[in-house]
Design brief:
Elements lengths: L1 H23 L5 H8 L3 H29 L1 H20 L4 H28 L6 H30 L3 H4 L1 H15 L14 H24 L4 H23 L13 H30 L5 H7 L1 H21 L1 H21 L5 H27 L4 H50 L5 H16 L14 H18 L7 H52 L5 H4 L7 H9 L1
């Protein structure tokens, strides 16, 4: 019996890992997918965002349907949909099919994730419940953290299609295990009913909120679309609270939020998710765009964060039983705050400083992520326990969406400022050069094209006027000299002497111009790197004061003595 229970929790962990992994695995492969499908980044962003939007929107209602009609059967349907969506995405011949595949994937994930938590928790005796919840919670954190690394490795060695097709063997394994472990003759819960009003309002609220978060930067935060989405989200939330407070079998029992520890868990889930995902999203882009690293190396450079989550997640479960919730949350919060202090003051071009920041953020997240899932469950049983895990899962998705929305938006605004500053700096430097107008124009055109890709100019470039351009200059100057001095009919020997003089003069001028441009472009490169680096680091500096919010939640959790007394019971 014990072996079956362990196998069941392990199988649920596979499902959770795959669902959460696909929220972050695609980001680093976007350039490869864009080239492979010959599509725009705007279109491709829907394949990335649709998964997050539908996952967050449908987790609670589909989890509730699984409770009513049978979790085991629903789980198999969810895994099958996730498998189908992964195949569609991996074999997609166009961005449209990729978007369809991601949509099917998200439907499957929205079934699998909440059902995995409930099945895994309820499959173990009460004495083992805490360890089962911690195991499934740690799995969520590891999957989110390892997404970029796995995405970079798979894309490098198996192309971008591999990040979707790698799901196939693991999903098939999970299906086989479920077929053997599940009770497929579950009965429908006759007394349970679906809260249609709560379902519609929760879906409307979460859909409008997540759509606002992921598209706000593209549409403009004060655009009519965004203001309309925020208004719709707020009205839906108010309606949801009214309905849930009066309905007999609510979609989300409001009793959850009367528990201070659950509220604290929700806040820490969102905040820790924001601060971790911000590191995972921005730093790989910095490594590829500003430092010119490959996608694989960029992914590996933030692996220290994942490594620390892997190390500290199991340790934190042991710590929880020794020192209680308050000290564990305090330790994790202080570590993440330390990580953001390091991110704010580091020189990101010195890797060991980046590594220290990643280690601290990863350690902090690892310390809180396992216990937070246990603490969210609190003393809840039955439907309250199921609802607590679904709601915390939704908050985790909202944290991811918030991280992308807030930090990518801040980065985009900073990049606009940085590029403007570099362009003005470049114009002033180049205009002051004693070179021809054509050389100035060509140099500024090159700077503008590199700024458009948000990349620093190539290192070590010393030839800006090529030999082909030099030859064209010699020929045009030679013809001009012949016309000016009316020597077009001169003897060949005279023309040869004139050509040699013009050639020597132009070559000397080109050499001087190249030397001048080498110095100026080196200065522009240095300024570009400085401005782009500041653009990437500034969001962390702005976020640093807000990391203190996690400290404010500490007192929402039980004291050590109260927690240990409850555990003994």
């Amino acid at each position: 019996m014990m072996k079956k229970t362990t196998a069941l929790v392990g199988t649920m962990a596979i499902g959770i890992f795959l669902c959460i992994l696909d929220t972050t695995v695609m980001n680093i492969a976007l350039p490869a997918i864009q080239n492979g499908l010959s599509t725009s980044l705007e279109q491709l962003s829907w394949a990335l965002n649709l998964y997050t939007i539908l996952f967050a929107t449908l987790t609670i209602p589909l989890g509730r349907l699984a409770d009513i009609y049978g979790r085991h059967r629903f789980y198999l349907i969810g895994l099958s949909l996730f498998l189908l969506g992964s195949l569609f995405s991996g074999l997609a011949g166009s961005v449209t099919w990729l978007i369809v595949g991601r949509g099917i994937q998200s439907l499957g994930a929205a079934i699998v994730f909440p059902a995995s938590m409930t099945i895994g928790i309820q499959s173990v005796p009460m004495a083992k419940r805490t360890s089962a919840i911690a195991t499934l919670g740690v799995t969520q954190g590891l999957a989110a953290a390892m997404g970029p690394t796995i995405g970079g490795v798979v894309t490098q060695f198996f192309s971008w299609r591999g990040i979707f097709l790698v799901n196939v063997p693991f999903t098939l394994l999970a299906l086989v295990l479920c077929w053997r472990l599940f009770d497929l003759h579950e009965r429908k819960q006759q007394k349970e009913q679906l809260d249609m009003g709560g379902t519609i309002l929760s879906m409307t609220m979460l859909f409008s909120l997540t759509l606002f978060l992921v598209k706000g930067n593209d549409w403009g935060w004060t655009s009519y679309q965004c203001l309309g989405l925020i208004l719709l989200s707020v009205l839906s939330l108010i309606g949801f609270i009214v309905v849930e407070s009066h309905v007999q079998q609510p979609m989300v029992p409001l009793a959850l939020f009367k528990d201070k520890q659950f509220v604290g868990s929700a806040i820490v889930t969102i905040m820790s998710g924001i601060f971790l995902v911000a590191l995972l999203v921005l730093m790989p882009s910095f490594f590829t765009k500003v430092q010119g690293k490959g996608e694989l190396l960029a992914a590996l450079m933030i692996t220290p964060a994942s490594m620390m989550i892997f190390i500290w997640s199991p340790i934190s479960g042991w710590l929880l039983g020794k020192v209680g919730p308050r000290l564990v949350i305090l330790m994790g919060s202080l570590s993440m705050i330390g990580g953001y202090v390091a991110l704010s003051w580091m020189n990101p071009n010195i890797y060991w400083q980046v590594c220290v920041a990643a280690l601290l953020v990863g350690m902090g997240y690892g310390v809180v992520i396992g216990p937070i899932t246990v603490l969210a469950a609190g003393d809840f049983t039955g439907n309250l326990l199921t609802a607590s895990q679904s709601v915390i899962g939704v908050f985790r998705q909202i944290g991811t969406s918030l991280a992308v929305a807030i930090f990518v938006s801040a980065l985009s605004a900073n990049l606009v400022t940085a590029k403007t500053n570099v362009w003005l700096y470049s114009q002033n430097r180049v205009e002051a050069l004693p070179v021809s107008a054509k050389v100035k124009s060509d140099t500024l055109t090159q700077v503008k094209s590199q700024l458009a890709t948000e990349q620093t100019p190539k290192h070590g470039q010393t030839t800006f006027i090529s030999s082909a351009k030099t030859q064209r200059l010699i020929r045009s100057n030679y013809q001009r000299t012949l016309r000016q001095h009316q020597l077009t009919a001169a003897p060949v020997t005279v023309k040869r002497v004139i050509y040699q003089r013009v050639s020597q003069s132009v070559t000397q001028q080109v050499t001087r111009d190249n030397q001048l441009l080498t110095t100026e472009v080196a200065a522009i490169r240095h300024e570009t790197k400085r401005q782009l680096t500041h653009a990437f680091i500034r969001p962390y500096q702005m976020a640093m004061p807000f990391t203190g919010v996690m400290l404010l939640t500490v007192f929402l959790f039980r004291k050590r003595s109260d927690y240990l007394r409850k555990e003994e019971k």
